[in-house]
Amino acid sequence: MFGPRRVRKTAATLVATAAAAATALLASPTASAAPQPIVGGTTTTTTAYPFMMQITDASQNQFCGGTLVSPTKVVTAAHCMVGETTSSVRVVGGRTYLNGTNGTVSRVSRIWINPDYTDATNGDDVAVLTLSTSMPYTTAKYVTSSQTSVYAAGTSARILGWGTTSENGSSSNQLRTATVPIVSDSSCRTSYGSDFVQSDMVCAGYSSGGVDTCQGDSGGPLLIGGVLAGITSWGEGCAEAGYPGVYTRLTTFSNLVTAQVNS
Ligand code: ARG
């Protein structure tokens, strides 16, 4: 979804960033290689990640990602579902390519948006969709509320999506994936100030940038040890040095999600 992108950035810092980027390119020509997935990563398939769902409009145009956690329940971001109705969205499983027609398309019978959600930068960015048709794909496990130690700084996390492969680029026709290290809460606070809500968010990315989720990846999974531990939520631009991606800290919402999965 093309929601919160630019946070706190003034025109002056944008110019400074552009100048710094130009300098970096001059200094190291090899750093200018074509942007990759998500941003920086490799292509993959829904066979490798069968729980990876496209969230689409009624015409099956993808706008967010989601994670299948039971045959009829999909975890995504609240900001993906704002303004949507059960008739405006579809969930598509088993479809590696955006322009594919294969896989399983389901209607949505219920949309639960965390009732505390207001804006991604205020936290609470989680939603659960109930599907009308069961998905015949392996589901993902998700963290329990007590597994808070999974977010130890430096832990490798996997991100997935069909989002743009550069900050102002276009979406990837094929599903992409990358790994990024979890960033400490103190470091993320330094990046984002009060927009970083520690109880509700976790950051991931390299301090030098280069690998990140981007627009269209929202709602998709951040996996730690193969377990769903975060939801792609927001960031300052994409893959910028000093601005990691921000993900919903799923341990905080695990019990809420379970209540929806069981309802
Ligand atoms: N808000 C974006 C979306 O709706 C996700 C942005 C993630 N940004 C980032 N720098 N990691 O698709």
Structure, explained:
The strands form two sheets. This protein has a six-stranded antiparallel β-barrel. It has a six-stranded antiparallel β-barrel with strand order 2-3-4-7-6-5. The protein is globular. The protein is built from four helices and 13 strands. Helices cover 16% and strands 29% of the residues. Mean pLDDT is 89; it is low at 1-37. Strand 11 (221-224) and strand 12 form a beta hairpin. By secondary structure, it is of the alpha+beta class. The site of arginine has 16 residues, from strand 12. It comes from Streptomyces achromogenes. This is Serine protease.
List keywords for this structure.
single chain, 263 residues, alpha+beta, Thrombin, subunit H, six-stranded antiparallel beta barrel, six-stranded antiparallel β-barrel, 16% helix, disordered N terminus, binds arginine
**How is the largest sheet built, in terms of strand order?**
8-9-10-13-12-11
Class per helix and strand makeup: alpha+beta
CATH fold topology of the largest domain = Thrombin, subunit H
**Could you give the order of the helices and strands?**
HEEEEHEEEEEHEEEEH
> Which ligands does the model contain, each kind named once?
arginine
| Helical fraction | 10-25%
The count of strands amounts to 13
CATH superfamily of the largest domain: Trypsin-like serine proteases
Give the CATH architecture of the largest domain.
Answer: Beta Barrel
What is the CA-based Rg, rounded? Answer: 17 Å
**Tell me, what's the shape?**
globular
The CATH class assignment of the largest domain is Mainly Beta
What kind of sheet is the major sheet?
Answer: 6 strands, antiparallel, barrel
Strand content: 25-35%
